[in-house]
């Protein structure tokens, strides 16, 4: 499915995969908000990921293909302040990023659904 030289469904799938990986990184940051000397991380920007190639597979089930489980796609975040135990996680910033990621996921799935609806209408399935 190529719409004007752009694989819209493939781009949407890549974006959703990136957003899923970002949610996991942010969840790890929040889970470690009391871990001494823990430094938060974030995913590389989606633009950088698309510019540098495809997203790496992540193995979520023992029957899945082996994927990349390292922090290769993540980057260290700039920390504004640290707690007494050296932790750099600011929960308010992490929660804002989680909310932003959730909004982006809803937008991409909505656009995907609308595109599929238009495609089905075009081929006479609706």
From TrEMBL:
Domain Flagellar basal body rod protein N-terminal residues, every copy: 12-38
Pfam family, one: Flg_bb_rod
InterPro entries in the record: Flag_bb_rod_N
Predominant location: other
Compartments (UniProt record): Bacterial flagellum basal body
Protein origin, superkingdom: Bacteria
Keywords annotated in UniProt: Cell projection, Cilium, Flagellum
UniProt protein name: Flagellar basal body protein
């Amino acid at each position: 499915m190529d719409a004007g030289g752009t694989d819209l469904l493939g781009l949407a799938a890549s974006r959703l995969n990136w957003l899923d990986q970002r949610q996991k990184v942010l969840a790890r940051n929040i889970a470690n908000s009391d871990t001494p000397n823990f430094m938060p991380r974030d995913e590389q920007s989606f633009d950088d990921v698309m510019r540098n190639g495809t997203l790496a597979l992540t193995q979520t089930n023992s029957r899945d293909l082996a994927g990349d489980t390292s922090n290769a796609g993540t980057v260290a975040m700039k920390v504004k302040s640290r707690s007494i135990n050296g932790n750099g996680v600011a929960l308010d910033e992490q929660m804002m990023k989680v909310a932003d990621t959730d909004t982006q996921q809803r937008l991409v799935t909505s656009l995907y659904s609308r595109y599929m609806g238009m495609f089905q209408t075009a081929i006479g399935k609706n």
